[in-house]
Design brief:
6 helices, binds 5-O-phosphono-beta-D-ribofuranosylamine, eight-stranded mixed β-sheet, three-stranded antiparallel β-sheet, alpha/beta, Rossmann fold
Length: 214
């Protein structure tokens, strides 16, 4: 039985689209059971509807604090009994209670080669630092922002003459490959989160898989 997967978005949802396309092409064995947004105008909701995936939206502005919003999200998501949560441009920091509730079952993609450049403006920061390599990382979500065990990285060589926008476009194209692939590894049980670390085929793996792209 395929892994019941919730995808959480706030915006355009190009990563969501990559999941939809990979499942439709038969390249990814996940059951996309719900697409959740905290923004009613997120274009990703339309992508989900076109693909006949149920959608839900709860606006965080209607809640007095992070904890009460997160409790409402849990209640909504649990109606779909997800095994796995995919954060795909979900622009909310999750409360420790939320992360603990779905412990080891939340993935995020961060546009940098973690542990380098957690946080924002990653492309400009990589350019400013004169990095030879830059890319994106799929990782388990823990309470530490952008700090959970890394699963898969996609990297490319930085062209010092390119702009942050150009670099971002190239990195996003990589994300659309590595995110479904990493989620498939978790969905199939090959990669699991245990004791705060990532296990691959039962062995502790503190280094992510790395794929290099042009
Ligand atoms: C991605 O670039 C990802 O790295 C970041 O948010 C962005 C989401 O883009 N966490 P999209 O909504 O999937 O197009």
């Amino acid at each position: 039985m395929s892994c019941r997967t919730a995808i959480l978005i706030s915006g355009s949802g190009t990563n969501l689209q990559a999941f939809i396309d990979a499942v439709a092409a038969g390249n990814l064995d996940l059951d996309l059971c719900i697409v959740f947004s905290n923004k009613p105008d997120a274009y990703g909701l339309e992508r989900a509807e076109k693909a006949s995936i149920p959608t839900a939206c709860i606006e965080h502005g209607n809640f007095p604090d992070r904890e009460s919003f997160d409790r409402a999200v849990i209640e909504e998501l649990d109606r779909y009994a997800p095994d796995l949560l995919i954060l795909a441009g979900f622009m909310r920091i999750l409360s420790p209670a939320f992360v603990d509730y779905y412990k080891g079952r939340i993935l995020n993609i961060h546009p940098a080669l973690l542990p380098k450049y957690p946080g924002l403006n990653t492309h400009q920061r990589a350019l400013d630092a004169g990095e030879e390599w830059h890319g994106s990382t799929v990782h388990f979500v823990t309470e530490e922002l952008d700090g959970g065990p890394r699963i898969l990285q996609g990297r490319l060589r930085v062209d010092p003459a390119e702009s942050a926008d150009e670099l971002q476009t190239r990195v996003q194209a990589i994300e659309h490959k590595i995110y479904p692939e990493a989620a498939g590894l978790v969905g199939s049980g090959r990669v699991v989160f245990e004791g705060g670390r990532s296990l691959v085929d039962g062995d502790i793996s503190d280094e992510p898989f790395v794929q290099s792209y042009e």
